[in-house]
Amino acid sequence: MPMGRFTERVAAYGRALGGWVRRPTDGRWWLFIGTGLLLLLILAVKSPTGFDLRVGQVASRDIQAPRPVVNRVATEQLREQAAREAVRNAADDPANYRINATVAIQASDAVQDLYARLADFLPSQETPAGQDQDAAPNAAPAQPTETQVVEAVRLLAEAGVPLPASTVRAVLQGGPRELERLAQVSRETVEQVLRTRRVPTEELEAVRGQVGEFLPDQGLSEAQRRLVGLVVAANLRPNLILDPQAVQRVESQARRSVPEVMVQQGQMIVRRGDVATAETVQILQDLGVLRPDRPYRSWAGLALAAFGLVALLGIAIHQFRPALSRDVKQLGLLSLVVGLVATLARIGSVVGWEGAPYLIPVALGSMLVTILVDSQVAVLTTLVTALLTGIMTGFSLEPAVVAVTSGLTAVFSVSRASQRSDVTRAGFLVGAAALVTILALGLARGTSALVPLAWVGLVNGLISSVGTLGLLPYLETAFSITSSIRLLELANPNQPLLRRLLMEAPGTYHHSIMVGNLAEAAAEATGGDSLLVRVGALYHDIGKIRRPYFFVENQFSGENPHDKIAPSLSTLIIVSHVRDGLELAREYGLPPMVVDFIAQHHGTDLVRYFYNKALENNRGGTVEEKDFRYPGPKPQTRETAILMLADGVEATVRSLNRPTPGRIEGVVRRSIKGRLESGQLDSSELTLKDLDKIAGAFVKVLNGVYHTRVEYPERLVKEMQARRA
Prior knowledge:
- There is one protein chain.
- By secondary structure, this protein is mainly α.
- The strands form 3 sheets. The protein has a two-stranded antiparallel sheet. A two-stranded antiparallel ribbon has the order 2-5.
- Helix 7 crosses helix 9 (222-235) and helix 22 packs across helix 27 (638-654).
- It has 30 helices and 6 strands.
- Mean pLDDT is 84; it is low at 127-131.
- It folds into 3 domains: 101-125 and 142-238, no CATH class; 296-481, Arp2/3 complex 21 kDa subunit ARPC3, CATH 1.10.1760.20; 494-705, Hypothetical protein af1432, CATH 1.10.3210.
- The protein has helices at residues 3-22, 27-44, 72-90, 101-118, 146-158, 165-172, 175-196, 204-209, 222-235, 244-257, 278-287, 296-320, 322-325, 328-350, 362-372, 375-392, 397-414, 420-445, 455-478, 484-490, 496-504, 506-526, 530-539, 567-588, 592-600, 608-617, 638-654, 661-677, 688-705, 714-724, and strands at residues 63-64, 69-70, 97-99, 240-242, 262-263, 268-270.
């Protein structure tokens, strides 16, 4: 490829990359990379006060414990020693043994084998040729030979069943059926004894002596009873085996009985010149004063953790809040909050005090995100920051659990916060939740050092609430976000701008109050933000402060200055209250979402009265309709559109001579229809169904204001006054 073409292609790739970087939506990628790198640096930072010491190295200085800590190595050694001793002693305790069913089966098999071998010495049961076997039932039983008896006696003696020849002969004379019955009785008896009775080695002879108690009372001759009894006794054996579960319980109990070995504050861990042992290094790690190495694998793991958590948060936001995932400004706020909490977590992890990890204010981030963004996003942020807390505190479970509990409590506590005192109350709730969690963890794990630190949870809650109150105004300003708390502050009648409106344009002030009532009812009926629309209504006409007497609601003397000026000039004055309102809004620092109500509450509507008046005055001339329209823009949101409708309806109904319910409803619906047909609602989110709900809400509020009153007769009024006198 020629060098010139190669250079052109590289330049084209560079331009494409630059265009990709400059695209507004792709700022999210830079935010992702920046947040991931920030978390990686926070995770990787080393303790500035730590020690570099490894197993086998010589300590260069004396190291004392800055706080109490459990010596896990020594504790585990003592517990292992106690467990071994308990297992050894368990073998001497009969309670730890159970009956082994296998012994009974083996003994039964041995009995069956003995009888099978004994059957070989039974006398022959052959009948004479030509005679049926059942033809002579009363024939004398066959007699065993002397050799058969001698061999049977020897067999039984070898099996531990010493019987005289006469007894053996009597048994053999019974034939195979009788011998099989004796075998069955012997098997059942030996199994019954070994399955139901504990037979330790030292009691074996005693149990053998009691075999007669287990034999059936009837159906056995004396010789058969002696044979069965001796066979059963000879095959009895110890049937106890050490129970593994019982031994495990003994071992666990022994381990739990050993208390934790504590290294007290100020206790010497290692002296200068001593060789570091595994126990020494473990103590330093648990204290958090040992500087960890950062090999490449560790860096890779931290990078995966940092970018993985950021990606997890981003994917969850994209899944549950797609609109938020496209708002770079709010994503930047989340990045800042996560970075702030992670920084505080790192500081808490390196402080040489055992209670510091439980002071990490994860709830601070949860409160800020709940108030400024959304409670669902706050839950996701809480889980991510809690995981970061666990990682930075040495992968400890307890601080992470406390972080999750306090963070979720914060989300639920401020999700409906309407004033700053609610945040303060939430701080106490967070502190109580953290306190109970620390107590529960300490009691559940049997960690004596954790229970006295429960009070730290209360401090955590207070730090979180104070930090939230302190940071909230700055974050609102920096990211142009208006929280519900800020809106309620703006709705306070003591706000300087509202005070000016009340004193300088009182008619407009009361008009704004009425419009706010109408708009709030309509917003609630259609699922809009009722608080936002009320605040917008309070400030939508603040521009009338500049020239209040040019607006009819402030003309108390009955004189109208518009009668003396041209319609075009009157239109300029009327329309200018929007521009004046925007200037006052910037002067007093009103948030953008409130400023939108000022700019959009008339849209591009026509100042119809002065337009018609101009047409009458200039019948032969040309009147441009655009000169008599508001500059706009049209309402862009549900709330600003509701305010436009409420503003027009309130002014129109106020002009009615007899505002009956029927006339009020007619005026309301005509006013809404006129705004719809003129295209003023085209950019809003309102549907026809919403407009019907809005009309119903307006009519309900207005009927309550303009309801009929009882007219008292003059005579009755005088009598009532006389009685009071």
